[in-house]
Amino acid sequence: MTSQNLFSTPEAKYSAVRDRNPSAEGSFVYAVKTTGIVCRPTCSARLALFKHVTFFESMQQAINAGFRPCRKCKPEIQLHWNRHRKLVIALIAHFHGLQAAGMTAGDFRLADLAGKSQISKWQLIKIFKRYTGTTPMRYYEELLKGSNAISEQDIPLVVTKKRQMKKEKLGSMSEIECTSPHATETEKVAEFSAHPHGAQNDDWIAEFLRV
């Protein structure tokens, strides 16, 4: 099923906006009638009521209708806007080059690779794992063993903090279900709905954008 079919109704689009679903990126933009602002589906702005929201297939349609781009999520930036994803893709390509050169995991330092990207080693590990589900060095070690490489198509357009927390919560639920098979459906829903400890940074989108 294509993304257009997946988000074919206003209700489906609104649900994607509510969840900040990265799969909706590129499928549509939404505008808020009361503010005159248009956003990408993954924008972290406060969710407007359904009756105040309208959807457009493209940014240009929204502009022609009189809406202006959101300063937080910058929906007018369409190509290569997610520098985190671009970094992960570049690192995977670099790993393939190292593999072809016959280098082992002990022949290079991840900190040096991170330094070339002007981020810390720990930031690089966090970003890579967010998009691939594994750490850079673990991926390279598996690559050397002949495991299937991750392609660009396998990497999501964006992984928002809200989606990541939801994914981690789902993982926690799976562990709970394995250890507590008799848990009721109500208990499972309550576990999923519980907010994680700590405040969530709503201005998440800025870290993805190329200045």
Automatic annotation (TrEMBL):
<dbReference type="GO" id="GO:0008270">
    <property type="term" value="F:zinc ion binding"/>
</dbReference>
<dbReference type="GO" id="GO:0006281">
    <property type="term" value="P:DNA repair"/>
</dbReference>
<dbReference type="InterPro" id="IPR004026">
    <property type="entry name" value="Ada_DNA_repair_Zn-bd"/>
</dbReference>
<keyword id="KW-0010">Activator</keyword>
<dbReference type="InterPro" id="IPR035451">
    <property type="entry name" value="Ada-like_dom_sf"/>
</dbReference>
<dbReference type="GO" id="GO:0008168">
    <property type="term" value="F:methyltransferase activity"/>
</dbReference>
<feature type="domain" description="Ada DNA repair metal-binding">
    <location>
        <begin position="13"/>
        <end position="76"/>
    </location>
</feature>
<dbReference type="GO" id="GO:0006355">
    <property type="term" value="P:regulation of DNA-templated transcription"/>
</dbReference>
<dbReference type="Pfam" id="PF02805">
    <property type="entry name" value="Ada_Zn_binding"/>
</dbReference>
<dbReference type="GO" id="GO:0003677">
    <property type="term" value="F:DNA binding"/>
</dbReference>
<protein>
    <submittedName>
        <fullName>LALA0S09e02564g1_1</fullName>
    </submittedName>
</protein>
<dbReference type="InterPro" id="IPR009057">
    <property type="entry name" value="Homeodomain-like_sf"/>
</dbReference>
